Every structure is written in C-alpha cells, then in structure tokens.
Amino acid sequence: MTVILALKGAEVxxxxxxxxxxERQRLMARENGVENSITAVLGAGEDLPLPSQSFDxxxxxxxxxxxxxxxxxxxxxxxxxxKPDGLAAFLRTxxxxxxxxxxxxxxAPASK
Length: 112
Fold this sequence. Notes:
Layout lengths: L1 H6 L4 E5 L2 H13 L6 E5 L12 E7 L10 H10 E10 L10 E2 L2 E2 L5
C-alpha cells in the first residue's frame, strides 16, 4: 500500500517494528521510483517517533490484532500525530488466528 499511495502522489511515512520490513519498504520504493516520497521509520505504535499534529491520514494494515490487549497508548499516539481534522483508518485482510469478540462491557464469553 505504501508504494501505491506514493505512486498516486502522496507523501508517505511507513512505520514498522521490524528493521527487515523497513528495508523491504525502502527497496520497494527504490524499485518503483518513489524513494523520495516515502520515509520509512523504525518504531512502535505505543511510542511513535513522529512529529505531533503532522499527518492528515494514518493508515494501518495488519496491525490492530497485535494491539487488541493494549490500545490505550497507541490510541493516544494516533491522536497526537494526527492533525486536528485528521483521519485514522485500519485494514485487516487475514482472518484471526484466535477469533475474539468484544463489546463495551468486555470480551464475549468463550463458545462451547
């Protein structure tokens, strides 16, 4: 998605906790001629190494299932880096390894 957005003219910042994933992003950017439109950053959602109020949109893919037990810190960080009218959107395409349901009152009871 990072390269596609850059090819469409967006200035993209890619964040990952894996140095290998960051290097893949940089390689894909070079191979597609958009290395000047993508900034790849090593970091975690709980402590984003990004400037405050600097993003119009934050898009995440395949990340929320890794944060289901600890969304408070990443949520605060998202709010911090988004501009006042900014938008955060997340995509998940793979089915969960451990399906879980949750509600405002907590997780759903286990099925029998």
